[in-house]
Amino acid sequence: MKLTPILTEKSMGLAKLGWYSFWVPVSLNKAGVKKEISQIYTVHVKKVKTLNFKKTSAKNFRGRLMTKPAQKKALVFLAEGEKIEAFEAKKEKKK
Q1: What is the pLDDT along the chain (95 residues), one digit of tens a residue?
Q2: What CATH class does 4-80 carry?
Q3: The sheet that has 45-53: what strands, in order across it?
């Protein structure tokens, strides 16, 4: 399964609150997301929320019709005290 973490400013802010966001395959349901996250990151998942995005089409700069495939986003809430290291922000030292 391909689970891609979403590493944007908004998702990093949600990660501080305990919500971790991933792009998941459209065919995967909440139970499947919970199982995959638990196996890959060895954490205990308490809650899963999913959002479905429909496929969209738009014209590019040449006027050709381009289609963007359907996607699914999963928000995962972990048990108390657990973290996923991919979402930890590295602090840079300023000179």
Answers
A1: 689 999 999 999 999 999 999 999 999 999 999 999 999 999 999 999 999 999 999 999 999 999 999 999 999 999 988 998 888 766 666 66
A2: alpha beta
A3: 4-5, 19-24, 71-78, 45-53
